[in-house]
Amino acid sequence: MTVQFAFDNSYARLPERFYAPLPPTPVARPKLIRINTALAEQLGLDADWLASEEGVSVLSGNLVPDGAASVALAYAGHQFGHFNPQLGDGRAILLGEVVGRDGLRRDIQLKGAGPTPFSRRGDGRAALGPVLREYLVSEAMAALGLPTTRALAAVTTGEEVVRETMLPGGVLTRVASSHIRVGTFQYFAAREDMEAVRLLADHAIARHYPEAAEAESPYLAFLGAVAERQATLIARWLSIGFIHGVMNTDNCSVAGETIDYGPCAFMDEYHPGTVFSSIDQNARYAYGNQPSIGLWNVSRLAETLLPLIDVDQAKALEAAKEVLGVYGPRFHAEYAGLLRRKIGLAEAREGDDDLAQDLLKLMMGNNADFTLTFRRLGEGDGSVAREQFMDPAAFDAWHRRWLERLAAETVPAEVRRTAMRGINPAFIPRNHLVEAALNAAIAHGDFGPFEEMLGVLSRPYDDRPGAERYMEPPLESERVRQTFCGT
Ligand code: AMP
Ligand code: MG
Fold it and tell me: Measuring from atom 11 of ligand 1, which residue has the nearest CA?
């Protein structure tokens, strides 16, 4: 095989206790579903080669390319608040890292690549449905402009996996800035291996927060930077109606990317209590709880860093608490700014936050569709948004207040409408459509709906005549009430 990947595996140069080296387990009859050509180019990879027989062998785990690390990473994590000292990549293998044309270093990982020493009772495999789901939703998130892991490719394995029923198997090739999680720090802290925590922190700083290395206290600066990125990310989730669904500390990337798309979902009607995940019985990860859970997760990271921050642990705790104080203000500033822009206000004024919050309250009481309400508000004078409200008169009162506030803006109406179209998507991966696209592929081997949906979601802010059905909320009969982890 000619060299296709210019691997430079910095994580695999860390000590052996950070991972388990092993090859992926080959599959029976690998078949390509698709290559993400644009992403391949960004990474400096040859998309045609990836789609070739040899390329598909690599993407399915049947051939380990030269220079690959091929390791399963160790990590721990709090799952629904309960600490598990050993999770790790139970069905994923990190092939290695490449530096893209943009100069950015990224992990290339095969998800569903067979059992590893971290598989516990799992089979190490992924069913086709969750593979396609992660492909669709992570690529939609990227097109929406949010920090996220990406999907480079998806293949079917020609093998079945046993879940509640027999399902076709698949492998997703995932690309991430790194796979370092809050849970990775917890893994070493739980073993009181502070040398490893330090090495990991230094690695994460060099890779994601090089400016922290220059700070008076690099580990405090690192903590503050992770907290800020997490707060910003979650504000952005809220701004597009995204519910991660399983924000365990092992699914929380220290690089601030959305990672591990399991039972995630986009909300149709606005309600902060919205939960889709079948396993989230106590609504821990409900839409509106995400900001506080983000802080909870970053606080778990802080605990692992305390011994590095100060030999005096009381002092270290005080300092960490102070740094974590950035989270709340950062989240609120980001969220308020996004909401203000979502209602078309370019200039911040006193009372804007109340105006936006009052709209949300009204939406909640009126079963208004989150995405469509904001999108319609940016059309004409915004009055078409009233169709989203069970009591349109209640909207009219808010609408008058909003028009008065708009009158104080100096930005021309057309510029405002363009800005609103740029922040309020027309297209999100609506649950019922995701489900339909996955079902067509799983039940009939028809990847047409999946491909069509990917196309629509690739430009979520552009009007697209003919694609109206992708904008519409579900009919009562189409409504998806629960999403599943897919493990
Ligand atoms: P997740 O809920 O997908 O974030 O996974 C939580 C943990 O379970 C991680 O350690 C995964 O590697 C592991 N896991 C999930 N699915 C499987 C599977 N099919 N086989 C082995 N391990 C798995
Ligand atoms: Mg996970």
Answer: 90
Q: Encode pLDDT of 316-356 as tens digits.
A: 999 999 999 999 999 999 999 999 999 999 999 999 999 99
Dump pLDDT digits (tens) for 268-301: 999 999 999 999 999 999 999 999 999 999 999 9
CA proximity to 285, closest of 255, 265, 305: 265
Amino acid at 366: N
pLDDT at residue 201 is higher than 90: yes
Torsion of the alpha carbons at 363, 364, 366 and 370, rounded to the nearest 10: 50
Binned at pLDDT 50, 70 and 90, residue 175 comes out as very high
CA of 386 to the centre of ligand 1 (A): 44
Give the per-residue pLDDT at 487: 58
Residue owning the nearest CA to atom 23 of ligand 1: 90
Arithmetic mean of pLDDT, 183-207? 98
| Cα distance between residue 254 and residue 321, in whole Å | 18
Cα–Cα distance measured from residue 252 to residue 477, given in angstroms and rounded to the nearest whole number: 34
Provide the pLDDT for residue 1.
Answer: 67
166: left (phi over 0), alpha (psi -120 to 50) or beta: beta
Residues with CB under 6 A from ligand 1: 87-91, 118-119, 122-125, 246, 251, 260, 262, 485, 487
DSSP reduced 3-state for 171? strand
pLDDT at 485: 75
Q: What is the dihedral of CA 94, 99, 103, 106, to 10 degrees?
A: -10
Q: Tokens in use for 38?
A: 């644009």
| SS3 assignment, position 164 | coil
- The pair phi, psi for residue 221, each rounded to 5°, is -65, -40
Q: The tokens 């270093």 sit on which residue?
A: 105
Domain residue ranges in the chain: 11-179, 183-334
For residue 446, the SS3 value is: coil
Alpha helices (runs of H) in 256-351, residue ranges in sequence order: 290-309, 313-324, 327-342
The interaxial angle of helices 413-423 and 370-377, nearest 10 deg, is 160
**Which helix (H) or strand (E) segment is 127 a member of?**
strand 126-127
* Separation between Cα atoms, residue 322 and residue 275, nearest integer Å: 32
Tell me, yes or no, if 48 is annotated catalytic: no
Tell me how far apart the alpha carbons of residues 21 and 69 are, in angstroms, rounded to a whole number.
7
Which amino acid, 427?
A: F
pTM of the predicted model as reported, rounded to 2 decimal places: 0.98
CA distance 280 to 79: 11
User: Helix count (H) and strand count (E) of the chain?
Assistant: 16, 12
CA of 115 to the centre of ligand 1 (A): 10
DSSP, collapsed to helix, strand or coil, labels residue 33 as strand
